[in-house]
Design brief:
Layout (H helix, E strand, L loop, with lengths): L2 H13 L2 H8 L3 H15 L4 E4 L2 E4 L1 H27 L5 E7 L1 H18 L3 E7 L2 H10 L4 E6 L11 E15 L19 E2 L8 E5 L4 H12 L5 E6 L2 H9 L5 E4 L13 E5 L6 E9 L6 H14 L1 H4 L1
Parallel strand pairs: 3-4, 3-5, 7-11, 8-9
Antiparallel strand pairs: 1-2, 5-12, 6-10, 6-11, 6-12
Helix pairs in contact: 1-2, 1-4, 2-3, 5-9
Length: about 325
């Protein structure tokens, strides 16, 4: 197995197509096909079979793919270690982060990191939390900054470790003149009044897509309040949901931190939700279990923790 052969098989498995893989690898399709045939002849077995939905790996192909991923990950870890030996004069980190957290966190953290490590390349992968879990488990990213369930100490994947930073409130968003505002309770200690979500059992809800972690948290809140919500709209965008709530289309949820990245003319009413419904999620750093974490990545995580850890956020 050469590095080139490992890469070729890996890309074909992921693309499920010789033509797509060849395009991605900047090769001609016949050249890539011939290379795969040679590998199969050397091994004495087929690595792929054709189906109506594209190429899929045989059992031998699946094992070849896993070995390729493992070997390339080992090589990548070695490159990072060499960077450490060179006192961080060169290297890179691959950071996974959710889109809205990137908007909020990176302008605060990146300048401090680049000041201390100007020659370290930072590759940013922006996906939702569920996708970042998978990216971590596969070794595609070095670590992730994302949200998980309140004070969760473990990821859904056995291959990922979770390090909580702080517990963040999830707020209810309504139009300013919503009739249920009369039941809100004001407190001098809170920036927004508190309200019982159970009062909104018959109200229309705007919720985010099911693959997004905030939707999972929202569903738990509604379940604890014994609400079977009337969902009039689902969206991938907090800002779309927030603006529609401002216009009285329905009510929605938004994390407290995200209010800092929502400027403009749309000014809804925000409410803390009664504590008994556990209206929180946790900002965290997630890393692949037992993976090598470079000094550059450790420094980046340290800066994030200093700025957003529980002691600094209280």
């Amino acid at each position: 197995m050469t590095e080139r052969e490992l890469l070729y098989v890996k890309i074909i498995v992921e693309e499920r197509s010789i033509s797509k893989a060849a395009k991605k690898l900047f090769l001609t399709q016949p050249s890539l096909s011939n290379c795969i045939q040679k590998i199969e002849m050397q091994l004495g077995t087929k690595l792929f079979k054709r189906t109506n939905t594209g190429l899929i790996p045989t059992f031998a192909g699946e094992r070849y793919y896993q070995v390729a991923v493992d070997i390339m990950k080992i090589y990548n870890d070695f490159e990072i270690e060499v960077s450490d030996i060179n006192s961080l004069k060169k290297g890179r980190i691959v950071l996974g982060i959710t889109l809205y957290l990137a908007t909020h966190v990176l302008p605060i953290i990146l300048p401090k990191f680049k000041e201390r490590c100007p020659n370290i390349e930072v590759n940013i992968v922006e996906r939702n939390s569920t996708e970042l879990d998978m990216a971590l488990a596969s070794g595609e990213i070095d670590f992730a900054i994302m949200h998980t369930f309140p004070f969760c100490k473990h990821s859904h994947s056995k291959n990922v470790d979770i390090y909580p930073l702080f517990k963040e409130p999830i707020l209810l968003v309504t139009a300013k003149d919503h009739p249920l505002r009369q039941y809100a309770v004001h407190s001098n200690n809170l920036a927004y009044p508190q309200i019982d979500i159970a009062l909104f059992a018959n109200e229309p809800f705007i919720l985010l897509n099911k693959e997004q972690k905030i939707r999972h948290v929202s569903d738990v809140i509604l379940q604890k309040a014994n609400i079977n919500p009337i969902i009039i709209l689902t969206t991938k965008s907090y800002e779309t949901a927030r603006r529609l709530s401002c216009e009285g289309i329905g009510v929605t949820f938004v994390p407290l931190q995200y209010l800092q990245i929502f400027p403009g003319v749309y000014q809804p009413a925000y409410y803390y939700i009664n504590e008994k419904y556990e209206p929180y999620w946790t900002m965290c750093v997630a890393v692949q279990k037992n993976a090598y974490i470079s000094k550059a990545a450790q420094l980046f995580i340290q800066i994030v923790n200093e700025r957003f850890g529980s002691s600094s956020s209280e």
